[in-house]
Amino acid sequence: MQYLTVPLGQHRLPPLPYSYHALEPVVSGKLLEIHHSQHHKAYVEGLNKAELKMAEARGKRDYSLVKHWEREIAFHGSGHILHSIYWTSMAPIGNRWETPGTQIHNLMANYFGSFLAFQEQFSEAAINVEGSGWAALVWQPGWGRLEILAIEKHQNFFQVGGIPLLVMDVWEHAYYLDYLSKRKEYVRSWWQIVNWAAVEKRLNLALVGQMPLVIN
Ligand SMILES: [Fe+2]
């Protein structure tokens, strides 16, 4: 079986699939530029550093800082993965599906009862994340069904094995510049820019165990 490998310490910041101003007025160009070019970049750099430091320690068989570097790999690694999926979860007008595809819609109806019930639970999960974190719709291959997660930071309360299909960043850096402390307003506005075509595509890939960071 063929698979892609990212060499140790060589993760790269993926380019946005649209311009920094493309998601306005829901997300301003200034916010998106800072979020992508500074925050996401920092996670990529933190992950690369942690992997290389861990490799160096492994070479010396010095595991005195193993807890620290494994935590860094979990934090920055999850931050890099979630942001990469977040960018493709959104798209500008005219370049996205405005409503869920048939397959994801049917799975939502089976598990949550309806699309509106899914949307309500996802929104509430996002609004109620304590501090910084994410709401995520994942495909849980172990159980063959969808699940919603309210992830704290990038890695706490993540269910092992879940493959993210749709993620919403509710760190303050994702909305504060535009919405100040009104996270609820950001959450409600955000549904306008969800690209359901990407969710359907990610579902089809998740069903065969794949989770690419960049999708076309
Ligand atoms: Fe973020």
From TrEMBL:
<dbReference type="InterPro" id="IPR001189">
    <property type="entry name" value="Mn/Fe_SOD"/>
</dbReference>
<dbReference type="Pfam" id="PF02777">
    <property type="entry name" value="Sod_Fe_C"/>
</dbReference>
<dbReference type="InterPro" id="IPR036314">
    <property type="entry name" value="SOD_C_sf"/>
</dbReference>
<comment type="function">
    <text>Destroys radicals which are normally produced within the cells and which are toxic to biological systems.</text>
</comment>
<feature type="domain" description="Manganese/iron superoxide dismutase C-terminal">
    <location>
        <begin position="102"/>
        <end position="202"/>
    </location>
</feature>
<feature type="domain" description="Manganese/iron superoxide dismutase N-terminal">
    <location>
        <begin position="10"/>
        <end position="91"/>
    </location>
</feature>
<dbReference type="GO" id="GO:0046872">
    <property type="term" value="F:metal ion binding"/>
</dbReference>
<keyword id="KW-0560">Oxidoreductase</keyword>
<keyword id="KW-0479">Metal-binding</keyword>
<dbReference type="InterPro" id="IPR050265">
    <property type="entry name" value="Fe/Mn_Superoxide_Dismutase"/>
</dbReference>
<comment type="similarity">
    <text>Belongs to the iron/manganese superoxide dismutase family.</text>
</comment>
<dbReference type="InterPro" id="IPR019831">
    <property type="entry name" value="Mn/Fe_SOD_N"/>
</dbReference>
<protein>
    <recommendedName>
        <fullName>Superoxide dismutase</fullName>
        <ecNumber>1.15.1.1</ecNumber>
    </recommendedName>
</protein>
<dbReference type="GO" id="GO:0004784">
    <property type="term" value="F:superoxide dismutase activity"/>
</dbReference>
<dbReference type="InterPro" id="IPR019833">
    <property type="entry name" value="Mn/Fe_SOD_BS"/>
</dbReference>
<feature type="binding site">
    <location>
        <position position="35"/>
    </location>
    <ligand>
        <name>Mn(2+)</name>
    </ligand>
</feature>
<feature type="binding site">
    <location>
        <position position="83"/>
    </location>
    <ligand>
        <name>Mn(2+)</name>
    </ligand>
</feature>
<feature type="binding site">
    <location>
        <position position="173"/>
    </location>
    <ligand>
        <name>Mn(2+)</name>
    </ligand>
</feature>
<dbReference type="InterPro" id="IPR036324">
    <property type="entry name" value="Mn/Fe_SOD_N_sf"/>
</dbReference>
<dbReference type="InterPro" id="IPR019832">
    <property type="entry name" value="Mn/Fe_SOD_C"/>
</dbReference>
<dbReference type="Pfam" id="PF00081">
    <property type="entry name" value="Sod_Fe_N"/>
</dbReference>
<feature type="binding site">
    <location>
        <position position="169"/>
    </location>
    <ligand>
        <name>Mn(2+)</name>
    </ligand>
</feature>
